[in-house]
Amino acid sequence: MATSHEIRSALEAFLAGRTRLEQLASELQARATTGDELRAELADDVSTGRLPADIAGILIAQACGPAEPAGAAASAPAAEAGEAAAIHSRVDDVVTSSLVNDFKRFRDGSRRADRGRLESRQIDAALSDFHSIRLRQQASRAGDRPGARPPAVPDADGTHLMLGDMLRERFVLDVLIGTGGMGRVYRAVDRRRLEALDPQPYVAVKVLSSDFRRHPDALRALEAEARKVQALAHPNICVVFDFDRDGANAFLVMELLLGSTLDVVLRASPGGRLAADRVVPVVGGLLAGIGYAHARGIVHADLKPGNVFLCDDGDTKVLDFGVATALRGAGFDPAGLEALTPGYASPEMARGEPRDPRDDVFALGCIAYLVLTGRHPYDRRPAEEAEARGMVPVPVDGLDPGGWAVLASALSFRRDDRPADATALAATLLPGLARCEPALSRRWP
Is 315 considered catalytic here? Predict the structure, then answer.
């Protein structure tokens, strides 16, 4: 006869997705479990909704009924096979629900003073179960489509990571949140944070594209730049926690931000510009973050609306510090990986001259002009082309002569005519923007 502990252990393995329904039934049947024993053990699971009553009934029938003759399953009609598949789908739903509740319990445990640190093996087991059930469900859904195949396993070069995969035995890829020339960005569960009952266990993981793996010099240069950026502790700069590798996959671990990049916000805004009352906070936050970096000898070298993040809480954050600089220093074309944007690059950067804070000032001028007018100052043409055409930006309507003079200097094609760095630009541009906010508000809300 099975003991209560043995029945409970078998049930917990089933609810965690480690044991299939048939395996559980066979195990309980082998232990000569009676229907009354199993019903008593299942009572709490059914009453709390952890296990649906119909699944419990099927389990009791299979575990406590007579043994099935050998070969009987092979002769089952198609209708019974379809019914079994439906049961399996229900069981997977039950297991998934159970795992979600486990994660909620881990999370909620951080709010209880009497809860200690989660042990590593608990997290390992939970993440393993979650990964297993997710892949099994994906394979099952794929198998239901005519001619479909289950999701492919990652290629040898690691380029086809799947949701649920784990990097460095720590970061579980949960949701794909962005793609670009540099690679893919995922929301990921940091199991160390989860283990420590951190109320925010998520991070952003940027997995670099295969182009980087084919250029080891670029990878080394990017790692060196990432180490520098880790020292930039400023509220307007996205935190980079680490640069690491797992097999062929190189990746950056960053803070997870909630909100949208500036280019997305502008596309959804009337006239493609920011509301007047948002201009100073956004431009001010951007200048503060870049100014902090300039004071420490670091140039961004690829400022553009896509690298400016507007958080839901009102903060402005700068993304992707040092990427273009690292690639250029390694002899790699940053434009090929969308790490250099011609419409925001200064003429000197386009010519490959050594980086300078005034290159960032040119890009900052373009961004400020864009948020004020909804237009790029040079119609998004590369600076060298705009200079050759003799293009001159149209003054911003509502900006007083002093404010416009400062912005126009930032947009100069000559380095020597621009403010020395972001801090110098902020000292003169922000007061001009603040003075003109009432006038800008009258022209657009």
Answer: no
